[in-house]
Amino acid sequence: MNRRLLWKLCATIAFGTVALFWLLGYLVDHTEHSMSFIAPKHRKTLLDYGAEAERLYLAGDAQALATWLEQLQQREHTWAAVVRSRLEPVAGIIGQRFWEGFGLGRSVEWKIHLYFAENPIMEIPFHDRHVHFLIQLPQHMRPGGYQPHTRVLLQIALPLLLLVLLSLVLYRHLMSPLRQLEKATRRFSEGDHQVRVRAALGKRNDELARLADTFDRMAERTGRLLQNQRHLIADLSHELRTPLTRIEMAVDWAEQAPDKAEALARIRRDGELMRRLVEDTLTLAWLENERPRLNGDDLDLIDLLDSLIDDARFEFPGHDICASLPRQAPLTGSSQRALGQAIENMLRNALHHTPPGGRVSLALTPDGTGYRLHIDDQGPGVPEAHLNDIFLPFFRLDGARQGQAGGFGLGLALARRQLEAAGGRVHASNRPEGGLRMTLWLPRDGKT
To answer: Which residues contact 227 (CB under 8 A, 6 or more apart)?
Structure first.
């Protein structure tokens, strides 16, 4: 399964964490390095102290030098001294590099260790390199006075700020499509069924983009179902007016006529039409909304066709029904009720629109993993532009071929939904010699 969002978040957090530690390490090292040197003004002060000590030493006034050192120690709250060094090798040779770098204390240019408790001894050598001015670095000259605050800033405040920024980036990346979904859901709940989300996410291709695709498909299907239901209810209410009007007229007639048998027969006939219309509408709405898969029966399609053809011949004795069927056509995992109603509706539709004395032909042949059934009539046919429209609920044609299934336009629509629920399909075409051909394809195994 593609988990682009997971890998994107993992990469962002991993690289962000590594970058955070690297940045903190670099800043800590750089800050401590820059804070480890004595300030320039303090360096100058120490060098001035060394120069004054050398001047007094060269003047040969030991008392003045001692007095000056005493005053310096009291003023700086530290100790200071002038010492002489003379190295004499006992064995071996001392190289020139050692002589140049030899010292009794730290140079004012060197780094000061910030973590040592004691202040270091600073040295300003005299020009002869054998006499040295030594002073313990005064506390007010010690670098790194802001180190504790800097450590808090670098180790707590800065990581917190960077993590907050990273969280904001991730939050924005995650919430942007979710806000689009929220807005679309709100608009959809308010009745805007044309709202879509995926286009607003651009080229994004991750789990949230697939969620947007799923929402769009849901919105499209739900909007289409709501629209179909509205049309179905509107058409149903329109179609019910005709039988209701006839029933009202029959009731008025029955109240006035001495012989009420014919009026009652008309009321019963119209009531039966209304009942079938409501039942077919409810069945069609259920098939449209639930999209069930009807695959619980095993049957022989030939037995089903024989039964339907016998009923049709009894009901339409003035028509010639010709069938070309193989001996057997077993179906597994299908629905005998759905197939029976669908084929019966199409057969009746063909007989209704075939003139008396005309022929309706049925031909069943194997076709790949299923069977193909042709139902041909000798009616007026259907304009090419409306061959798909005749499977819409309550669709009517102007002219000779009007209405389906009792004149209410539900038969073919219901038949197509029933075939699809059983795994089949149907389409209509006009025959070159005239008439309409219904082509049904039914799977041998409806569970596959």
So the answer is: 193
Calculate the CA dihedral of residues 62, 63, 66, 68 and round it to 10 degrees: -110
Reported as a single tens digit per residue, the pLDDT across 353-369 is 999 999 999 999 999 89
Contacts of 363 by beta carbon, 8 Å cutoff, 6+ apart: 323, 324, 325, 373, 374, 376
Angle at 168 between CA 164 and CA 171, to 5 degrees: 135
pLDDT digits (tens, 9 = 90+) for 205-214: 888 888 888 8
The angle, 0 to 180 degrees and rounded to 10, between the axes of the packed helices 40-59 and 62-76 is 160
Asked if residue 432 and residue 306 are part of one domain, the reply reads: yes
Q: Which residues pair with 324 in a beta bridge?
A: 363
Q: Give the end of a domain, one of 143, 163, 194.
A: 143
Q: Let me know if 288 is exposed, middle or buried by CB neighbors in 10 A (0-12, 13-18, 19+).
A: middle
Residue 295: which of 411, 126, 70, 447 has the closest Cα? 447
| 19 lies in some domain | no
Q: Are residues 430 and 329 in the same domain?
A: yes
The reply to whether 429 falls in a domain is yes
Q: Which of 143, 171, 196 marks a domain boundary? A: 143
Burial class (CB in 10 A: 0-12, 13-18, 19+), 115: exposed
Does a structural domain hold residue 78?
yes
Number of helices (H), then strands (E), belonging to the chain: the values are 11, 10
Whether residue 313 sits in one domain with residue 267: no
For residue 157, is it within any domain?
Answer: no
Find the domain containing 62 and state its range: 40-143
Distances (CA, A) of 51 to 44, 80, 122, 420: 10, 14, 14, 106
